[in-house]
Amino acid sequence: MNLRKATEIGKCLSNETRVQIMEWLKKPEINFPPHETLKHFNDGVCVTYIQEKAGLSQSTISTYLTNMEKCGLLISTRHGKWSYLKRNEKTIKEYINFII
Question: Residues with Cβ < 8 Å from 87, sequence gap 6 or more?
Fold first, then answer.
């Protein structure tokens, strides 16, 4: 990890809702229902569920999640019309190691 990438991640994490999302996604089975189609969390959590839990507009959550994905904190997977997100544990570990 380089300074620029670490700074981008730091900016993403400078928002309380984005930090909450990372916390929720750490244990998705506790914080979200499984999607009725997949019935598991292997590919993450349906974006709709994240938006509902956060209680913010779809456009706001979409912007947050897109930025979090761009800086490498989240991994996106599509199944049909549904997008699922999970934490990118590799990037998170690299970030922690960089700042300590």
Answer: 22, 25, 26, 73, 74, 75
